[in-house]
């Protein structure tokens, strides 16, 4: 994971009681993508970050932030 | 449990692909270490030819699997999920790894004095075998890691 990136995808997903597979279906990606983003293995593209935020009904900044 | 949704089917296919590529690469490497296709006595033309054909088929299969994602027979929406952003990144990373192995191996063959007796065919065989094996193993490792839960 990029050292400057704070990633709250897992927390935001859990808050909505969604499984990785359910969120993946909502966004139209594979569960592997959700898993790797949550684990910090993969930094999503801008498009995917926006899609994730939209599916969770929140802003991109509440899911992904830069350290101050 | 049998997968039902498109995401579940894609998940299963993606895992299977990673395992198939890993198994194919391992069988390929073991086959070449044991068979040493280009470094055996070539007086038996039939045996040499059959080994060469096997090696070529193995290389083409592994390369085709890497290039297409191995999902040409599945539905388009599943194929797109299997070859998503993560897999495309893993593909690029593994191909880059294979490229550097090819360059390093080729440089080694060119520079190491003891290897200057290798024929062009043998050099190509070593470069392709090592780079295709590394690219395939790297891809399957990255894919399996992507499936692993934290």
Describe this structure in words.
The complex is a heterodimer of chains A (68) and B (150). Chain A has 68 residues and is mainly α. Helices cover 57% and strands 9% of the residues of chain A. Chain A contains five helices and two strands. A two-stranded antiparallel ribbon of chain A has the order 1-2. In chain A, α2 packs across α3 (31-39). Chain A is globular, with a radius of gyration of 11 Å. In chain A, 35% of the residues are buried. In chain B, 77% of the residues lie in helices and 0% in strands. The two termini of chain B are 22 Å apart. The radius of gyration of chain B is 18 Å and the shape is elongated. Chain B has 150 residues and is an all-alpha fold. Chain B has one domain (6-147). In chain B, α1 packs antiparallel against α2, α1 crosses α3 and α4 packs antiparallel against α5. Chain B has five helices and no strands. The chains are: A mainly alpha (68), B mainly alpha (150).
What's the layout of helices and strands?
The complex is a heterodimer of chains A (68) and B (150).
Chain A: E1 5-7, H1 9-15, H2 20-27, H3 31-39, H4 46-56, H5 60-63, E2 64-66
Helix pairs in contact in A: 2-3
Chain B: H1 6-35, H2 45-68, H3 76-82, H4 85-111, H5 120-147
Helix pairs in contact in B: 1-2, 1-3, 1-5, 2-5, 4-5
- Helix/sheet category of chain A: mainly alpha
Q: Please tell me how large the radius of gyration of chain A is.
A: 11 Å
Q: Average pLDDT value of chain B?
A: 87
Largest protein-protein interface: A-B, 17 and 21 residues
The low-pLDDT segments of chain B are none
Helix content of chain B: over 70%
Percent range for β-strand residues of chain B: under 5%
Spell the H/E element sequence of chain B.
HHHHH
Distance between the termini of chain A: 16 Å
Q: Summarize the biggest pleated sheet of chain A.
A: 2 strands, antiparallel
Strand percentage of chain A lies at 5-15%
In angstroms, what is the radius of gyration of chain B? Answer: 18 Å
Total DSSP helices of chain A? 5
- How does the helix and strand content of chain B classify structurally? mainly alpha
Helix content of chain A: 55-70%
Q: Could you give the order of strands across the largest sheet of chain A?
A: 1-2
Mean pLDDT of chain A: 91
Largest sheet composition of chain B: none
């Amino acid at each position: 994971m990029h050292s400057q990136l704070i990633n709250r995808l897992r927390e935001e997903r859990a808050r909505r009681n969604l499984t990785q597979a359910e969120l993946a279906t909502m966004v139209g990606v594979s569960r592997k993508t959700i898993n790797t983003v949550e684990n910090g293995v993969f930094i999503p593209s801008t498009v995917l970050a926006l899609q994730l935020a939209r599916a969770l009904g929140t802003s991109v900044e509440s899911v992904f932030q830069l350290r101050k | 449990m049998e997968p039902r949704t498109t995401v579940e089917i894609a998940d299963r296919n993606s895992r299977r692909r990673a395992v198939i590529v890993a198994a194919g690469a391992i069988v390929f490497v073991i086959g070449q270490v044991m068979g040493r296709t280009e470094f055996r006595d070539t007086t038996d033309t039939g045996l040499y030819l059959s080994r060469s054909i096997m090696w070529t088929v193995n290389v083409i299969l592994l390369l085709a699997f890497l290039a297409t994602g191995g999902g040409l027979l599945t539905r388009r929406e599943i194929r797109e999920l299997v070859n998503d952003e993560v897999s495309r990144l893993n593909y690029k990373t593994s191909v880059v790894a294979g490229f550097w192995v090819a360059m390093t191996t080729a440089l080694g063959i060119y520079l190491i004095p003891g290897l200057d007796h290798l024929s062009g065919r043998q050099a190509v065989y070593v470069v392709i075998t090592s780079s295709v094996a590394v690219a395939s193993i790297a891809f399957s490792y990255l894919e399996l890691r992507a499936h692993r839960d934290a």
